[in-house]
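FORM 12-B: Structure-to-Sequence Request
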């Protein structure tokens, strides 16, 4: 077993702490929540910070240039911010809107903050997909190897490989040294990568298969091929019946096709399996409440909405308030009172 360099890990911990202070001080999560569900991704999420970079993805009902500039304008007024930049790649390979800030930490060092606003059913690849499996796959030894190789990249000892390719080389192939990395990756021009570190277990195999069906479903949803998307999501849920995200998107797609009764069952399965974060759980409870209200199950709808209220709702708040208000109005017209 390789000896883990404590100083290497300490440097990374210090950088991560600085990044998270900047996230809090700039109010990045709070500000981008006006548009959708922000997720801190990349090296900060993985505990692998070497370069002064912060990455986020914001999942929106639909990316909006005007709404994004409103957030960027508020952030740009912060005393730490020195530059701002925008790039429209909605029709390009990234299928989203890119927002960049350059800001200073307490020591005057410049940090780059990269944020993508994308549709909730973006077909990927997405950095957010890496967060959960990387957490499971990254042993202390693998973390040290990745950090060592990223520091070598920062010094110019190896080519400027994408970080995801370094992660793949270390986790899947046991690469540890700069020489091994160069031998493995060559020139390293790989483009967008869909690699994910699925464990070599039956559970990992099921999740891999389900994820592939989910990606296909998102692709079909973006083409408005709802029947084909529903079939792909049914396959995703069948491949990994314990994956709440597959059941959630099956519920949403059934709901959008007017199949509320079937959607209700899928929302409940999603919540029973578990969903990744508090906002997603609140979203599922809210949309379950909406489907229940549409089918006349008003007591159950108000109970589901109370669960979403308890979780604090979800972002964007405008959508949450509109749907929750609709559930309450339906229930009120039917003689039921919301608590």
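FORM 12-B RESPONSE
SEQUENCE OUT:
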């Amino acid at each position: 077993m390789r000896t883990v360099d404590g100083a290497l890990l300490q440097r990374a911990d210090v950088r991560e702490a600085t990044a998270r202070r900047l996230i809090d001080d700039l109010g990045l999560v709070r500000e981008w929540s006006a548009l959708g569900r922000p997720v801190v991704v990349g090296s900060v999420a993985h505990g692998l910070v070497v370069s002064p970079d912060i990455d986020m993805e914001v999942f929106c009902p639909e990316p909006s240039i005007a709404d994004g500039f409103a957030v960027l304008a508020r952030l740009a007024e912060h005393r730490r911010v020195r530059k701002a930049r925008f790039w429209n790649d909605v029709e390009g390979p990234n299928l989203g809107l890119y927002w960049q800030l350059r800001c200073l930490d307490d020591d005057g060092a410049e940090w780059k903050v990269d944020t993508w606003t994308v549709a909730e059913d973006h077909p990927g690849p997405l950095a957010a997909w890496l967060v959960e499996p990387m957490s499971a796959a990254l042993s202390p030894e693998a973390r040290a190897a990745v950090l060592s190789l990223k520091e070598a990249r920062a010094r110019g000892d190896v080519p400027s490989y994408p970080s995801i390719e370094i992660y793949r080389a270390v986790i899947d192939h046991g690469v540890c040294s700069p020489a091994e990395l160069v031998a493995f990756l060559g020139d390293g021009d790989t483009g967008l990568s869909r690699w994910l570190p699925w464990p070599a277990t039956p559970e990992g195999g099921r999740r891999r298969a389900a994820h592939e069906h989910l990606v296909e479903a998102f692709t079909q949803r973006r083409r408005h091929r709802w029947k084909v998307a529903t079939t792909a999501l049914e396959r995703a849920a069948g491949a990994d019946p314990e994956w709440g995200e597959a059941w959630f998107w099956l519920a949403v797609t059934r709901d959008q096709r007017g199949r509320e009764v079937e959607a209700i069952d899928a929302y409940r399965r999603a919540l029973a399996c578990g969903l990744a974060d508090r906002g997603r759980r609140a979203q599922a409870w809210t949309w379950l409440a909406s489907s229940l209200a549409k089918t006349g199950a008003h007591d159950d709808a108000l109970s589901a909405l109370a669960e979403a209220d308890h979780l604090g709702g979800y972002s964007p708040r405008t959508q949450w308030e509109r749907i929750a208000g609709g559930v309450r109005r339906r229930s009120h017209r039917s003689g039921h009172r919301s608590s």
